[in-house]
Amino acid sequence: QQQVKQSPQSLIVQKGGIPIINCAYENTAFDYFPWYQQFPGKGPALLIAIRPDVSEKKEGRFTISFNKSAKQFSLHIMDSQPGDSATYFCAATYRDRGSTLGRLYFGRGTQLTVWP
Amino acid sequence: EPEVTQTPSHQVTQMGQEVILRCVPISNHLYFYWYRQILGQKVEFLVSFYNNEISEKSEIFDDQFSVERPDGSNFTLKIRSTKLEDSAMYFCASSARGRGSTEAFFGQGTRLTVV
What is the three-class DSSP state of B4? Predict the structure, then answer.
């Protein structure tokens, strides 16, 4: 069972474009939705995260839109740059034992290429 | 900036051999995790560890796998008898306890190649 579905698998945009990556989840117990950025040969690094009590969160050029009723969330990258070229993973989890982080369920990843 | 460090960066082993992957989590973190990523696929959870015991494990984490915190700083993943399908990038992660501490910090990974 795939808990988190992510699309598209790959995405190519021109510099300055706004790539959008979409994710859908199944488990309504999830209460934390992070996005991770991974460069080749590196581990995933937290980019931005959202909780289900808000519909949008913006940090710099990165914005998460969250639709609780549809169980979907998406990442928008404004004014994309070649340095944003990386693999992006959405994830979902629930907090265990209070505020600690539970198991992360990752999407399959989106390979983003931003052409100069 | 504190970081999770993993050793070795790349390990090649023969099928059937035991391997131990090592991780040094961030010093004040209390929750530790192992994930793996088969080439080109998604990151998959293996196991979480807290207070010297396994908190949760996935279906991947069978009897061939074990984890240990042998001292105050290291966290290890042992694969007893490696199979070809164990070839993957293995990531260690750690997170802190407490309100707002919901971020998992990942190491750079160990690439395991089973031949």
Answer: coil
Q: How far apart are CA B38 and CA A56, in angstroms?
A: 32
Per the CB < 8 A criterion, the answer to whether A107 and A88 are in contact is: no
B106 to chain A: nearest residue by CA? Answer: A43
B99 to A100: CB separation less than 8 angstroms, yes or no: no
The per-residue pLDDT of chain A, averaged, comes to 92
Q: Which helix (H) or strand (E) holds A6?
A: strand A4-7
pLDDT at residue B12 tops 70: yes
Q: Confirm or reject contact between B109 and chain A (CB < 8 A).
A: yes
pLDDT at A2: 67
In chain B the beta strands, taken as DSSP E runs, fall at 5-7, 10-13, 19-24, 31-37, 43-50, 53-57, 65-68, 75-79, 88-95, 105-106, 110-114
* Tens digit of each residue's pLDDT (9 = 90 or more) over B26-78: 988 988 999 999 988 889 999 999 888 998 999 999 999 999 998 878 999 99
Task: Name the one residue in this structure whose structure tokens are 């909780």.
Answer: A51
Tell me the CA distances in angstroms from B82 to B15, B23, B113, one per residue in order: 5, 19, 10
Which of B107, B93, B103, B2 lies closest to A42 in space, CA to CA? B107
A115: left (phi over 0), alpha (psi -120 to 50) or beta: beta
Q: Is the Cβ of A9 closer than 8 Å to some Cβ of chain B?
A: no
